[in-house]
C-alpha cells in the first residue's frame, strides 16, 4: 500500500401584544446607551487583531480560558445549530425569524453595519467556499476585508476573520469586545424578553468588529435562507453586490418545504438596484424565480454558469505533496453587465468541478465590484484564487497528521460534504484525482440530513472498499446526531436500491464473524463492507483494518465526511496529539 502526503434606519415588525411597551423601553434604553457606546468606540480602537494559529487551522483549547465568559454567555442563548431550526423559520412569513429584533440590537450598538460595504452570499451549497475565494481575491489586491461565515469547525473565532492574511479574530479582541458591549447585550435581551439568539448576537459582534477595525468591505455569508436571516439587515446603499450560489433541498422544513420556497427565501438578499451574481447551474424554473425577484428589484443579473463562461479543469497535479487542479477561467458576459476575464492555468487547491464553479462565481462577484469602481486586477484575482484554502473542504492531511490518527499508510481527505449534491461532487473529485485508489469512507451525519440520498451518491459514485458509520456531536450536543446503527441501515437500504452487494455483520450468516473475517469475505467477493462504530476513535481503527485488508498495492484513501462536525473531531484529535 502506498501513501500520499481548504445606514439602515430602525424598523419594527408588525405590532403584537406588548409591542408598544417594548418600543418605549427600547427608546429609553437607546438613549441611556449612547454615552456608553461613545466610550466603546474610543476604547476599542484599531489593531486589536493579531495573527493566530496557522493557515491550516487555529488552536481551540487555548481559547477556553480567554473566552470563558463569552462562551458561557453564548451557551445560554438559543442555538438553532444545536436544537434545529423551527418549521418555516427561514421564510418571509409570519412564521419567519423576526428581523426587527436584529435591527433593534444593531441600533443599540450604533448601526455598525452601516459603516462598511458588504457582499452578501446565500445559497444551499458553496457559500463558504465562494466567500473564501472572494475574500482572498480582495485581500490580494490590498483591500481591508472582513469575512463572516458559519458554522465553525474548531473555534468560534473562525467565523470572524480580518487582517492581511484573513486570520480568525483573536481571542483577545473578541473577549475585549464582549466585555465592552455586555451591558448593551443585557439590555437588548431585556427589550426582547430574552429572545435574542446565539446567531443574532454573534452576527452583531462581527458587524461591530468590522466597523471598529474600519474594514473597507465585508464578505458576509447568510446562515439560513436569506430573507429572514440575521445577516439580511444590509440596505441597498450598504450592499455592493449579492451572490446566490446554488439552490438545493437542504433545510426543507425551515425554508417552506419545496425547492421553489427555498429559492424564494434565498432571493430575499437581492436589494434594489444592486447587482446579483447567480452561481448555479439552476433548474430553469428556479433560475426564473431568482430572475423575477431581481427584475422586481431592478437588479442587474450576472449568471456565473452562463454558456459564455468557458471554464474548465485541465488536470490534477501535485506540488509540495498537495494536489491541485489546473484550471482555465474564461468569463465573457454581455447581458445586464459586460464582464470579461481570461485566466489560464490557475492552480486551485480547492478540488473538484464544484470548487471550480465556486471560484468562477467568486470571480464574477469580483468583476462586478470592479465594474462598480473597486480596484481589482486580473493578476490579483489569479493570486487570490490560488491562495484560497478552507478548513474541512478538500483538505488533505499531512503524513504526520495521518500518523497522529493512526492511519499512517493512507492518504486522508477530510471534507464536510453533507448533502447528496455535495456527496456527488466529492466522489467525482476523488475519481478525478485518484482514479485507481482503494477507498474507505468514515461517515457521521446530523439527524436532519438526507442520509439515504447521501449514501446512494457515495455508493454509486465510485468503487468503495468499505464504509464505517460513526457519530459526532453537533454544537456540543448529541441531540441532532444520527446513531451509527441508523446510518448503517440507510446504507444497507441504498445498496439494495442500487443492486450493490455489501458485507455487514447484521447479515444472519455473518453475525458471529470478526471484522477481519468480514474484510476477508469482502475482499474475496469484491464487495464493500459496512461497519458501524459509535465511537469516533473506534471508527478510525476499523477504517485502518479495512484499508490494510482491502487496498493491497493500490493507493489507500480514507475519506472522513458527512458533516463539518466530524471534520472538527479530526482536527481536535490532531490538536490533542500536538
TrEMBL record:
Keywords: ATP-binding, Ligase, Magnesium, Metal-binding, Nucleotide-binding. Gene3D superfamilies: Mur ligase, C-terminal domain, Mur-like, catalytic domain. Pfam families: Mur_ligase_C, Mur_ligase_M. GO terms for biological process: folic acid-containing compound biosynthetic process. Transmembrane segments: none annotated. PROSITE patterns: FOLYLPOLYGLU_SYNT_1 (PS01011), FOLYLPOLYGLU_SYNT_2 (PS01012). Residues 408-486 form the Mur ligase C-terminal domain. GO terms for molecular function: ATP binding; dihydrofolate synthase activity; metal ion binding; tetrahydrofolylpolyglutamate synthase activity. The keyword Glycosyltransferase does not apply. The keyword Magnesium applies. GO terms for cellular component: cytoplasm. Residues 121-366 form the Mur ligase central domain. Belongs to the folylpolyglutamate synthase family. PANTHER family: DIHYDROFOLATE SYNTHETASE-RELATED, FOLYLPOLYGLUTAMATE SYNTHASE-RELATED. This is Uncharacterized protein.
